[in-house]
Amino acid sequence: MQHVIVIGGGVVGLTSAWWLVEAGYSVTLLERESEVGTAASYRNGGQLSYRYVSPLADAGVPLKGLQWLMQADGPLRFRPEADLRQWRWLASFLANCTAGANAKTTARLLKLGELSRKKMAELEVVLPLDEFAWRDAGKLVVYRSRSVFDAAVARPDSEESRQVLSPSECVAREPALADAEGVLAGGIFNSGEAVADCYGFCRALEERLAASPRFRGVVHGEARGFVTENGKVSWLDTTAGMLSADSFVLAAGIQSRTLADSAGIYLPLYPLKGYSLTAPIRPTDRAPEISVTDFERKVLYARIGDKLRVAAMVDMVGEDSSINAKRIASLTRQVRATMPRAADYEHIETWAGLRPATPTSAPIVGATEYPNLWLNVGHGPLGFTFACGTASILADLMSGKPAPIPLAGLTL
């Protein structure tokens, strides 16, 4: 039985381990934290946006980015680094900021999203959805600018079932938006989108893995680098010792780029730092039942169990996962203005995480120049959404099976 070491115990690493175990591999998971799912997967937005896959790179985004940088509560912050990787990523990102590139990536991600939705559904047999607060909530994207809203309505849409709503219809569909009706230009609703607790999903999947005789367990240690010999990876150097296996899967979030460097592989990844607030919902609160995205402000709202999760912002500040108090204060002001009666904002739990993104927003899955080193990286803010899909693709490729969807634009 082939032994695989999966590096990374977040949602991407855990789903990779699950599908490899299901494919007949013996699997060990390496995670540097004391628990799985406590880094970028911990308190992310909780939205499973299978049909709303909007790549960050698009025509007009560079100009918007400059405007956002000038706004006190803008969704973007940028800090130049003396790091060639930042500038190389930015150059590639800017090259992809065209309508044509965006359309191609969107088409690819829609196929990946549909595959992920189906694979998540397959997990229901062994992983009851209530264990991680999964709900088929639907998604409502609201717009504040009439021109931006009109442009969104006019764009070709893959979902015939989408519903274009006026401000009053947005409030009728989601009453939590009542206090924001006066500033809305309209909204677009799509059914079939879900919300769930990503950390809860990670813990539940870890339990199911532990019950498999092919799962060798979790090794808690930090990977330092690969040792390569004769065109293959022979060892993985970690704080838990030197580890060997027949194959290795790199799914370690933003740490993946440094680990890949040790094997001479450049991964076009950059950490987009995001923030979230989690607030308890009281019986008297009017929390949203639908997953809501405030398009211009790039703020996501999701009810997860008895908590309201709000996620937002992109800070391009390198591998700094600290919580910036000013950014949290800014996000809190926006949330209070948009949904003032949705939750108990006096008892907010804050979080920040590094989302490893590619310049195109498309993840990278599959082979490398080494026959026993595989990738499942670069999911950006859609790690929870795409994890089941890319994990199933990875297992198929490693087993010599054809990929279930075209892989153009999704490989190294």
From TrEMBL:
Gene3D superfamilies hit by this protein: D-Amino Acid Oxidase, subunit A, domain 2 (3.30.9.10), FAD/NAD(P)-binding domain (3.50.50.60)
One example GO MF annotation: oxidoreductase activity
EC number: 1.4.99.-
Signal peptide: none
One Pfam family per UniProt: DAO
Family: Belongs to the DadA oxidoreductase family.
Protein name in the entry: D-amino acid dehydrogenase
Organism: Massilia agrisoli
